[in-house]
Amino acid sequence: MKNQFLNFSLIIVIASFALASCTKDEGAYLGVIKVQISAPTDFPNQSVSGLEVTLLNTSDNTTRKATTDANGLVTFNNTPVGVYNINTSIKLSLSLTLNGVAQNVALTPNEIKQVNVPLIGVPASDGFVIKEIFFAGKQDYSQTDRFFEIYNNSNKTLYADNLYFADLAGYTGSNVNDAVLNLPLDQYYYAMRVAKIPGTGTTYPVQAGKSIVIAFNAMNFKEGFNPTNWAKLTIEDYLDLSGSDFEMYAFPFLETKGFTGNATFDINNPSVPNVDILYMYNAANNAFFRLNDYGPGLVIFKPEGQFSTTDVIESPLSTATNKLYFLKIPVSSVIDGVDVLDNSGASKYKRMTNIVDAGFTYLKPDGKAFYSNMSIRRKVERTDGDRKVLKDTNNSTNDFEAISRPTPRTI
To answer: Of 164, 225, 366, 381, which residue is most buried, by most CB within 10 angstroms?
Structure first.
């Protein structure tokens, strides 16, 4: 009995030591993040209490939420070490939102990290906004069914004539060899491809709450449905883009450069108007107008005065044998922009400043969305009569969601 008691006591001691050791080890991998929200300089009296702050762990994509105290402070205790994105916003009116964002906040073991997040006032775009972007299709390897959609978020008729759009230069974080461009973004963004909608000024009216679809190929892909397709798609997965408003047909532009383009990918539907393609950084015989496969930085803009198609900058990633040039887009001319990156931890690859897109969005947090048939779509904020008003805080982290299947013209 005495030996049994000693053995039992020894087991308790060992278990207690192991528990204490485990607790100590777990504590070594935790830290504290203190987030201080501060009012914007142009709204110095704005209250910063009671704001919901979201903390996103970019490693496992878990989120934690907490509310600021009377002084705008929120503390996340017992936070696992890692890299975090911080996000908060407050809508002051239908036309003004305050955004607060901090990205790539690294927390080390036992650290108490102090992070100051100033709010930035961003007016809503009472006009055209980007509604949906479909770029990672699953129909076939050529992905010729890509499109994006522009929506009239106002309460009046607008005209799409001479509205420009651009796919911005830069990597998305999809590859270990990706490099940040490290170009200044205060005055200009930098585009790989630029086009504009034609018209005389009143040729293409867009009613309030309606949209236009710009397709890579304006075709009815359902006509080529194969029930034994390799991706096991149903006919509902195939798009009918034959009724698109515009098509991105590159041959006319490429011919002016002495090239013929790529007939395999670039197919013209004569019943759908073509956009005017103005710039392609990779103009060649095998080229076509496309969006970044792993996440476009898409902007729509209207430049003041004459827009130069020769105002280019050489990429920092150029080499002696591979020269890369990107067209400069004045930030002041941008109407709306959506920064789509590969995954939730790719914020260092952002191609837009906070005034256009304070956050970024993605199809899947882990980036494994290529050929997924998923799409990026803007959320609905409210209904005004028969008109849907889409969410527009100039922060795609808040404004957009990833959906399982593209929905052109559908909200």
So the answer is: 164
